[in-house]
Amino acid sequence: MKVDLELGDVLIKRAHNGWMALTISEADPTYVLTDVYSDSETDELGIHESLAELLWDHFCAYFRSKWHGGITLKIEEKGREHDDQ
To answer: What is the pTM of this model?
Structure first.
C-alpha cells in the first residue's frame, strides 16, 4: 500500500509493541519523520497510554484547556461493569 503524505498530515500506525506517527518534515518535504510511542510492558493499560501520548503530541491544539473547549481523554482502569459496584 502506497500512501502519499502531505505537509500537515499525520499517519498513525499500530506496531507490535506501540504506535508510530508518520509526518512530513517542514525543513525537508521529501523526508518522512517517524515518532515511536512504545507500550509500557509493566502496565496493563500501556497500549492505551502510548496512544494517548501520541494523540497529545500531535493534536494538542484540539484538546481542552483552561480557556477553550476541546477533546478530553481519560483512561479508565476498569470497564463499565465495575461502575455500578
So the answer is: 0.83
